[in-house]
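Researcher: Here's the sequence for the chain we discussed earlier.
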Amino acid sequence: MKNSTRHYLSIAILLASITAFLGACAPSPSESSSKTSGEESGRKITICLIPKKKGLPYFTSCAAGAQEAAKDLGNVELIYDGPTDGSPDKQASMIEQYTLKGVDVIAVSPNDPDVVAPAMRKARAKGVHVIAWDADAVKDARAFFVNQASAKAIAHGMVDTMANDLGNPSVKTEVAIVTAYLTAANQNIWIEHMKTHMASEHPNLSLVAIKPSDEDQKLAFKVTQDIMKAYPEIKGFFGISSVSFPGAAEAVRQAKKTGQIMVTGLATPNSMKSYVKDGTVKSVVLWNTAELGYLTVQVAEALATGKLTDGASSFDAGKLGEKKIEDDHVLLGDILVFNKDNIDAYDF
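Model: Thanks. This is the structure I predict for it:
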């Protein structure tokens, strides 16, 4: 009996020793949650980049810059995916899908901020970092907004360019805006700044119409035709998306109004070169789209790894250098204006 007691006691002591040893070797809670903090050594950061509409040259050029940033950083796996029809509901569904897949960061350019906001908030609640780029989201649905330039700078740049292209500031001129979606937050902000700037600095410009094109170039073409019929004295069109601008320019070209009606706005230089060279368009306003994609991935990776935190006033964006952060907007920089003299120097 004594021998049995000693035997059981020895086993109990051995088990206690093993338990203590395993406890000492177990990772601490902070170590085991390193995916949340994004700071474990050598771990790949998965970033999902969602454009408004996949397949547009504008967003394809952004994606090329994003891929370059992923390569330069070396620890990023980049997923580029988005709706091919520009549907905000499909954007929301994709955000939900990639949240379930456990990506580290979702970067979205919202077509309709209110529609995608619930999915973005759910992603954040599950520990996924969420940022907006190109177009801002509802503020509490994202951490940062990677902004190509301030809304005021973009709006003022387009209005000043139109006034310069028209050439005679003393003549009263009717102008119109062809936008993408009436729900596009970034374009609506630009429009408000455009109105204010026209009223204060260019009162000769009279805004007579604002029409959506639903990111469809054929619809932008038709909308422009309809406005020309409704306002036969019109002298200028702003195409404020990479689809509405060439659509508006083509309508003016086919109406044989080149030189009589000016068209300016936002689009990639490659999509507008023929219009610039034949005089339908004098100036194209934009920013470096590849750099916008590059900056977005740099911000996403820094957020996931803890290098970028709330309240930062600047950010080291790799080859792009130091970038300002105003409030929670990471700013790419100034707008670019392309014309006959410089447009061939750009290929995107």
